[in-house]
Amino acid sequence: MATIDVWQRRCCYGLSAFYGAAGSLHIVIPRPFLGITPTWVPDPKVVILLTGLLEIAGAIGLVVPQLRNTAAIGLALYAVCVFPANINHAIDGLGAATVSPWQWLYHLVRLPLQPPLVWVALFSGKVVAWPFSRDHK
């Protein structure tokens, strides 16, 4: 049976790959992200570029032991901050004249995944160990 440290390391590398890929997509193919950015966000192109750079920085930070804790907290806060864009995307997508079952399924799965994404970031940075241990480092 794997220890909590092994699971934290696995989550760390998995989350690093996820955010590295997402950040790269924000920079290389910004159009889909611009489409889900709420209208109240100023200068969406710059914001999308900066979010991509932040995701990449967080991904790198997760694999550098001295930066892991800070990167994990930053990515958890980032996931909280972009949640309005996810909600906006769901509202716009599901409010269209025609909505496919795949769109419903995507948003039905995507929105509830945000809190676990925050938890995984904090878990990988050893900020929290709950529910696996009451002690944390």
Folded structure, characterized:
The protein is mostly helical and 137 residues long. The chain has seven helices and no strands. α1 (4-28) packs across α7. It starts with a helix and ends in a 13-residue tail after the last helix. The mean pLDDT is 89.
What's the SSE blueprint?
Blueprint: H1 4-28, H2 31-36, H3 44-63, H4 68-81, H5 83-94, H6 101-110, H7 114-124
Helix pairs in contact: 1-3, 1-7, 3-4, 4-7, 5-6
Which descriptors apply to this entry?
137 residues; globular; 72% helix; mainly alpha
Major β-sheet annotation? none
Cα-to-Cα separation, first versus last residue? 21 Å
> What is the oligomeric state here?
single chain
**Large-scale geometry:** globular
**Approximately how much beta-strand content do the residues carry?**
under 5%
Question: Low-confidence parts lasting 5 or more residues at pLDDT below 50?
Answer: none
Structural class: mainly alpha
Number of helices: 7
H/E element order: HHHHHHH
